[in-house]
Structures are given as structure tokens and as C-alpha cells.
Amino acid sequence: MDKTIEELHELLQTKKVTSAELIQESLQKSHEVEEKYNAFATILDEAGPTEVTANLLSGIPFGIKDNYSTKGILSTGSSNTLKNYIPFFNATAVEKLLQAGAVPVNKTALDEFGMGGTGTTANTGIIKNPWDPTRMCAGSSAGSACAVASGVYPYALGSDTGDSIRKPAAYCGIVGYKPTYGMISRYGLFPFASSLDHCGVLTRSVKDAAIVVDAMKGLDEKDMTSWDSSHIHLYNSLNGNVQGKKLCYIKELCDIANYPNANPELKEHLANFHQVIENFKKCGVTIEEVSVDQKLLDALPSVYVILSCAEATSNMSNLTGIIFGPRGEGKNVNEMMKDHRTKGFSPLIKRRFVIGSYVLQKENQERYFKNAARVRRLLVDTWKNLYKIYDAVILPVASGPARHLDSDKDILTKDTAVLEEHLQIGNFGGFPSITLPDGFVSNLPVGINITGNVYDDANVLNIAYALESTMNYKNQIAKEVTHE
Amino acid sequence: MNKYKAVIGLEMHCELKSNSKVFSSGRNSYNEIPNDNISPVDMAFPGILPVVNKKCVHDALMMSMILNCKQPEYMYFDRKNYYYPDLPKGYQITQNTEPVGVDGEITIEVGEKLIPVKIHDIHLEEDAASLDHYYDTSCIDYNRAGVPLLELVTEPCLHSAEEAVAFLEHMRSIYKYCGISEADTKKGQIRCDVNVSIMDEDVTELGTKVEVKNINSFGNVFDAINYEIKRQSELKDQGRYDEVEQETRRFDEESGTTIRMRSKVDALDYKYFVDPNLPKYKITPEWLAEIKREIPALALERKQKYINEYNLSSYDASVIVKEKEYAEYFEELVNLGIDVKTASNWLTTQVLGEINRENISLAEFYLTPSLMKQIIDAQSRGTISSKQAKEIFYKAVEEKKEPKTYLNSDNAQLSDRDELTKLITEIINNNPEQVSQYKSGKTNLFDYFVGQVMKNTRGKANPVITKEILNDLLK
């Protein structure tokens, strides 16, 4: 299970291993990982083999984030509001993988409904980092990142509203890719913020990410924001040739001089970043430094909070316990809804609902919600202007390796706030964005991100593929660091 | 009571006809079995997404054009957020930012008068589920959840219950003419809210507006408005106008009164915002032009044509334009070359009488205009009497056979002049006494001879020819 999809496929085709054996191994690993890191909402012990076909994914196990609707399988979104919910339909992305012959072996835990960046707010408890269980995985696709990094299977589905695939990937030393908005149908993905939500995948190599997204993507008549990408073949487009490609990084984010209070981990992380891109230039890539208005960048975290909370408040209004989910108690229907929601949601989510309602109120909408939408537009336009010159923007992910579980959760230090949150621009613009491991700081993996223009997924993946080949972190499996 | 001017605004919700619902693949049809017309989308299961029904947008744009509204450049939808057990998503998809039509005006007929009605906006939205309340439980039927609705909002520009109902009737006729809605109040397909205020004749400042919500028949609209005008006027007369509050009331059918529900001060903030799941899309001028071409001639337009060009009476014209299929039947008769008056008479008396008796639609009626023409032509040629024409009409309808079958057979009229002359000569010869009385001045005996001829031919003798021959022979 520590192998790539191509390798596993080869083994299956030559009958050196059977689908049943792979699933058995994956299930066994699932239980080990669950025991150690608490990564899963459900383990599908009854999972059975499928026929091995020409499809690269056939017969191979994978994991599904628990905010994807899975027919006949408990789908909770890691929330008590859906703790007993068994859907009767599959998310389109899941359906496509099933048709490819892929075998789901577990549902992975997440920050409740994807609303969190720590992996600590699932109703099943804290998800620990497989490199160091005293640290977090980041979120919200924490369980998926943990499982893939631990070698449970080659890939797991994630969803990404702010950086929910790409940050956990960095913290767990693996690859996280969210394609252009609408490339993968969102039908059946429990919504957090519809204009920012993306489906995607966590893998241990760029090639595996390309293979999986090739299978998940496509126009879906059930999702009006999906588009026809039948002309795009991600896997076949990977040739590693990046001669003449132009990349840029943002000075305001990458210059250590901008962080007067930088800790050693941040210094090491940024130094490593510069070294990695310096090295990458040898492949014939031009990488330039560009400057972006600091004020605009500084607005980013609050714009994200306003927009995502506003949409979330509305999106989660269907969770009343009337049609599905545990019925609340009360003398009348309003009391029942109130009881269901009061008991079902964690305090973090309730806080976000309050923010969301507040910014949408008639008297506040112009000042908060509409202004946030305008700043979103400005940020996206800024990036789109960069894409007129550059193939992609390359940036370090976060301000260092995985944070300690006992550090202040979800509270950002002012200095590094934008560095921690900049991946959200990928969601604002619907840009294809991929994170891959680019080194170690304090013996823990750190990540680098490449984000390109919409519909330019093949180019972005090929650049990531070339960069990956300049480093030694492809297919790495988490090894717990020893503490003194 | 009449010393005050009433100011009335209407909100008319009309369910649209379509195969599937406005944002889901759930069936849109009248269904008595609860929760039969549903899809996961209608019940807001986690992860569902709306997909807009293009036919509904098409129909909404057509109505927008008929109402002479401005159409937006892009079509998009907003979420109206509130919690209610009949609203599965916790928000209704509607149009707030850019409705499908704004700032319109349409001319309606009130009695014999034409008046303009200003339209604030018309927008496309989804209906909520329906609730049935029992003693200690309530049941939710999601059949209606997601049914396409067009909500039309007038400016406060109407001044009487008559005008309000005339407007609603006019709109119902348009919906039916365009095939956009069955517009059947009995099936709950039309629901209205009315806003009523009163003011002194000589002031310009509007009075306090009272809203009466969810009225389900035009009769009740009429009664609710009149009740409100009376209630508000009485309070004003008594110097208690400050007791008229900006509030929402409902109409109580049993007592014929309106009952307070809540004050407008408690109105919800719906926190509207654009639904990100429904990407905005451009309404092209080509599409608009195409829809415009599809708009049929409407009732009022046809009625005026019938009166002005065909010289029909206002009454007959009204009867004919009541349903589009009547008007089309009539126009087809005219196009077949039948005289307008004759066509109108046949349609309004015989044809409509028959379909009403049988309780069928005109489309189900056996005698198409071209079959009707066989009867009408025979009558106008004098081949058959009007009585015979009617007999053939009923026979043809009953036996579902072409009228000409009866014209050709022995049921047909006896018009052969020689044969009739022979027969009449015989009758005259057999009645010498009556002949001499007739010739001596008792001219009313003429009818006696006609009666004898009819008796001998079992009513089949052509009356015109019979009279001509009798006149000749009795000279």
C-alpha cells in the first residue's frame, strides 16, 4: 500500500497481488491508523474486491472524506447533526470512481463539515499527525491526509474551501490537488461555502493526483457550475518538460525581512523554499519575484471569513433534524429545530454561523458581505494579471511544519496570517492549485504550492510534476519522529 | 365609505406548467398522493444542487415581455433565507437583485373601460412544501416543494375590488393563452396577497398599508379588499385611523373578514444573497426575439378585433375570447370562409352549449371547424333548414360521422324541384276546399299547405323551394 497507482495496477494486472489482498491490507492498516491517529469516521470492513480492468484505478482501495454523500454508507460530515445519516445517493465524484472499479475502504474524519483548519473538531475527536502525534494534521481533510501519509492507500478524496486539501497535504508530507472550480462536480459534496467549495484529492505523487482527478472530473448535469473538460487529459499531459515556463512568487509573502518576529522554523521554511525554487530553475524555468499590494493581501483572511461564513450559514440551514439527522426535542417544530442545532453543532461552527448571519443582515450587508465580495474580485484580478505573464504562482505553504495540538487553535498570529491563509486565493478565483512536499523543518515535512489560471490544470500539474522530480519526497510515507 | 380613495397593490403567485420542477428533476404535476412528486433536491438532502429549468426561464421571460417589463441582461437567482418547516433548504431560491422583469405596464378592461396597470416586477421562484395540520401533528407534503412559481407584483395603482379582480382575471387569461399555467385556483395554482390602504381624495400622501396574505380565490380577493376598505374607512370616520397598523392579516372565508396575523415591525430579515450554485447566464437578444415571436394574440387584442373589424357584439366577442381554443376555433371558421356572424352564432350557441353539456374541452369535440363547415355551407346554400342543420349537428356529434354523410343520404333535404312540384300538385288536388278558401282571401291557409308538404315528406322538403312552388301553384 506504499506504492503508486501505476505500480499497484501493474501488480494487479500481472496477478502478483489480488484486489482482495490489497483491500485486506488497506483495511488492516485502517484499523492501525485509526487506533493511533483517529483518522476515520467509518471503516468499511465489508469492502470487497472488484474486477481488475484496463482502468488504472480498478481493484485499488481508496478513502472518501466523510462529507461526500455515499449511498448506503454512513455520511456524517463529522458532525453530530448527521451522526445517523445514511444517504441513498452517491456524490457524482464517488460514483465515477466506483464506475472506474475503485474500492472505498473507509470514510475519513474531518473538521466538522469542513469548517476548520486543524483536524481537531470532528465529532469523533482529534485527528493526529502521523509524523508526530503531538501535532495536528491541519484541516479540514485531516483524516484523508493522515491516511494517505500513513500508507493506508494511494489516495483519498478531499474537499477544499480555503485550503482544506492543500494545507493538510503540506503538514502530512504528501500531495494535495484541487482542480479548477467546477472541473469535478460538487453534487453530493456536503456544502460549506458553495462559491469556494472544490472537490479534490490527496495522494503521494503528482502523477497519482492526475490519474485520480482524470477519473473524477467531468461535466455533470446535476451541477450547473461544472464544465466539460473532456479535452483535458491530466495524466497524459505529464511530460516533465517545463523549458521556458515562467513562474513568480510574491515578495510580501516570501521575504524573511517581512517577518520581524520570525521563529527558527519559519526562517528555515522560507530558506528551504528559496533553495527549492533556485534548484528548480535548472529545469529551464524562469522564476521571478513580484510585489503585490500589502493592504490587499492583509484583507485576505477577513474576506475569507466573511464570505465563507455567510454562505455556510445559508448552506447549513437544511440541517434541522426534520427530514434527516437525529430529531430534536421540543413542544413544537421550532423548538425541535433549535434543539437539534444546539446539540448538534460544535461551538466553532456556531460562532461562524453568528458571523455569517451578521454580515448578511440588511444593515451590514453592504459594509461586510458586499465589500468582501469586491475585495475578492480585486484579489482574483490581481492574480489573473499575474497569469498574463506567468504560468503559475509558486509559494510556500503555511509558516512552517505542522503545529502542536496544544498551540492556540485557529488563532492566527498577525505576522504570518497571510502566509498561513494565502491558499484561499485559489478558492476565490477557482484556480487549479497543488501542494507538494518540499523538505523538512524540525524533522517534519513542509510544503510548497503551485497555483495557475483557471482551466490550465494540465500546465499546473506538469510544472508540479517537474518540480517533484527535482526533490526526493515523492511517495514518502510518514515515519513517526522520536521524541527524546 | 366612498369619501376615501382606496389604493390597492397586488401580488399574484402563479404555478407554472412544466414537466419537471424549477430547480430539480422532480415531476411537476398535480398529484393527490403526498410525497410522490419528489427528488432528493426537493427535500434538501445534504449535497444536492439546484439546476434551473430552462423552460421555466423561457416562460418567465415571455410573461415579462407581455407585461412590457425590462428584462435583465443576465439571469440569476438569490437565496431568501428563513426557517420554516415547509422550506427544506432553509432558504427559497427566488429573484431579488435582478428579477426577470421590472417596470412594466399592461392595459386591462374593467367593465367597458380600459385602464393601465403598472407592474413593479415579476420574478421566478420555487414554491415551498405544503403543510397539513391535524390535532396534535402536522404533515409535510413535498410535492409542491420546488414547483415553479411566477410572482407578479403590481404598483399600488388599483382603486377598487372590481379593478383588482379584473386585473387578476386578465392575467389568468394571459397565463392560459400562453400555455404557461393552467391557472386553476381550485388546484391552488394561483394565490394572491393584497395590499390595501385608504386616503382622502384630495391628498397625495398614501395611507397606512395593510397586507392580506395568501388569498386563494378571486372571490375572496374581492371580499377581502372590500372588507378592508370598509374596516379602515370606519376607523377613519371614527377618528381612530391611528389604529390602522402596518400589519399582515389573513382572510377568513367563513366570517368574510380579515384577521390580524403579525405586525410589519416583526418582519424577518431574509438576508438575500446571490445563489452561487446557479451561475448567472446571459439572456441573449436572439433568445428574447425568439420568445417574443412565440407570444400568441391575447384575449383583449382578439376581442377588440372581433368588435372593430368583425362588428361582433361586445358580449359575443367576450364569450369567444374567454378561452384561447374558442377564439382559435372561431378564427378557423372565419378563415374557411364562413361569415363571421354565422361562425359566432354556431360557436357561442351550438358548439359551446354542447361541450359544456358534455363537460369536454373544445379539443375533444368531434366537429372540427372544417366539419362544421359542411353543415354551415349546406344551410347557407339552402339545402337544409336551420332545424335540419341542428339535427345533423347532433347526429354527427353523437355518431361521430362526418355531417356530409347525413346530407347525402335519404335523411337529406328534398330539394328536387320537379319531385316537389309533383307532390305539391297532388296535395292541392286532394284539398279543393282549402284551395278555394285560400283563393277567396283566407291567406293564412298558406301555412296549412306548407304543413301538408312537410307532413308528406317527414319534414324533409326544402322550405324555401316548397314555398316558391306553393306560391306558383296557388296563384
Structural notes for this entry:
The complex is a heterodimer of chains A (484) and B (475). Chain A is α+β, with helices and mostly antiparallel strands and 484 residues long. The model of chain A has no long low-confidence stretch (mean pLDDT 96). In chain A, helix 3 (92-99) links the parallel strand 2 (61-65) and strand 3. Chain A has an 8-stranded mixed sheet with strand order 6-8-7-12-13-11-9-10, with helices on both faces. A 3-stranded mixed sheet of chain A has the order 1-3-2, sandwiched between helices. The two termini of chain A are 30 Å apart. Chain A is 39% helix and 15% strand. Chain A is globular. Chain B is of the alpha+beta class. Chain B contains 15 helices and 15 strands. In chain B, strand 11 (210-215), helix 3 (218-237) and strand 12 form a beta-alpha-beta unit. The model of chain B has no long low-confidence stretch (mean pLDDT 92). The interface between A and B is large, with 45 and 29 residues.
**Runs of chain A with pLDDT <50, length 5+?**
none
* Beta-strand fraction estimate of chain B: 15-25%
* Main sheet strand line-up of chain B: 5-6-9-1-10-11-12-13
The largest sheet of chain B is:
8 strands, mixed
Instruction: Estimate the mean pLDDT confidence of chain A.
Output: 96
**Biggest sheet of chain A: strands, sense, closure?**
8 strands, mixed
Distance between the termini of chain B: 73 Å
What is the topology?
The complex is a heterodimer of chains A (484) and B (475).
Chain A: H1 5-13, H2 19-37, E1 40-43, E2 61-65, H3 92-99, E3 103-108, E4 128-129, E5 132-136, H4 142-149, E6 155-160, H5 166-172, E7 175-178, E8 198-203, H6 206-216, H7 234-237, E9 246-250, H8 251-254, H9 264-280, E10 286-290, H10 294-315, H11 333-344, H12 347-360, H13 362-389, E11 392-396, H14 417-421, H15 424-429, E12 433-441, E13 444-452, H16 457-469
Parallel strand pairs in A: 2-3, 9-10, 9-11
Antiparallel strand pairs in A: 1-3, 4-5, 6-8, 7-8, 7-12, 11-13, 12-13
Helix pairs in contact in A: 4-5, 10-12, 10-13
Chain B: E1 4-15, H1 54-66, E2 74-75, E3 78-81, E4 91-94, E5 101-110, E6 113-126, E7 130-133, E8 138-141, E9 148-154, H2 161-177, E10 190-200, E11 210-215, H3 218-237, E12 247-252, E13 257-263, E14 273-274, E15 281-282, H4 285-294, H5 299-308, H6 314-321, H7 324-335, H8 340-358, H9 369-381, H10 386-399, H11 403-408, H12 417-430, H13 432-439, H14 446-456, H15 463-473
Parallel strand pairs in B: 11-12
Antiparallel strand pairs in B: 1-9, 1-10, 2-15, 3-4, 3-14, 5-6, 6-9, 7-8, 10-11, 12-13
